[in-house]
Prior knowledge:
single chain; alpha/beta; Aspartate Aminotransferase, domain 2; 2 domains; three-stranded parallel beta sheet; 38% helix; 13% strand; binds pyridoxal-5'-phosphate
Amino acid sequence: MPGWELIGEEERAAVNDVFDHGAVLYRYGWADKRENIFRVDEFERVFAERMGIKHALAVSSGTGALIAALKAMGISRGDEVITQSHTFIATVEAIVEVGATPVITEVDASLNMDPADLEKKITKKTKTIIPVHMMGVSARMNEILKIARAHKIPVLEDNAQCCGGTYKKKKLGTLGDASITSFDFGKVLTTGEGGMIITNNEAIFKRAREYSDHGHELNPNFPRGEDTRMISGINLKMNELQGAIGLAQIKKMDYIIGRQRENKSRIKKALSDIPEITFRDVPNPEGDTGDSIIFSFSSRDETKAFMKLWTAKGFGTKNLPDAINWHFAGTWDHMLEHFPKYKGKDLLKVFAQSDDLLRRAVALPIFVNMPDAQIEKTVKAVHDCIRQM
Ligand SMILES: Cc1ncc(COP(=O)(O)O)c(C=O)c1O
């Protein structure tokens, strides 16, 4: 997920350009001073065009995007929202923040939502399903959408970690009723912090825009100071510096994903002769953004033995296992204990299938800039560790 690897002269020039044209850092107003240049507007337009979707709303973070999208989809207290056990904690935080009850599915060998478990978790109170495309790989969207449609439940894709990925030739983030992505510093595209909601549903778009801007309807008949409002909201707006950087970053998207895919496939090929490891099940390999390569051992002890050798050699991992506590609901007692379904339960047992799959996994980060020597060193180190185990 390395937009940060390519931050450079283009982003610097984009920021300078904001200062060369009036230095208005706010997304609305001051039309003369800013010479009529509105960068967040332009970023939304370019992003929507790139995704082939009608509406894009830029906001201050991916977490904010999730909250605004859930609000816009009418989620409130007492509603159940289903998501998966392997995700960044923000997905569940957003559900809790809007007052809804999180209901969490196991993941399967794709390390994304297990459709069989989704089916079991649907109740009359389920109001939205949030599949998360974790670490560059899509969830099993055909199965998930089929279940959601059969129950007439809207789908909000959390595409924070797979921006630019596809599923059966369709762009991720365009399969559900709405989706969000993140532009924090670890993502495919980065604006430092930032996020985007995209949808073809005009009502969701408008409600999310209002919520993220204190209820402002952007009524064309009134100046902003006299704008009309129907709902109360908060402030989740993106600023012009982020918009400018986003416009520079999006031009690099194809290059970023192309390089990652190539680097991933080279490493995967070079590790494919190791009988001790099983690669993550990727539902749609050609849509993978190449964010990371994940393999697992048949037991936790083997994974631990590998990790001991791997870290001793000075290598790191990406989230699994180093930051598993931020990416696995089995460790989120502090949030889930507030809900009767999870209160007092041993969450590691509640999510036993995910616990097993995630604890046996090792995720290696893939970068855009991976010189041949680095790829060879990584591959050799994996082979060496496994030989020494
Ligand atoms: C799956 C997922 N959802 C949501 C978010 C939240 O995004 P942000 O950091 O922009 O708030 C993240 C960020 O890491 C994420 O990985």
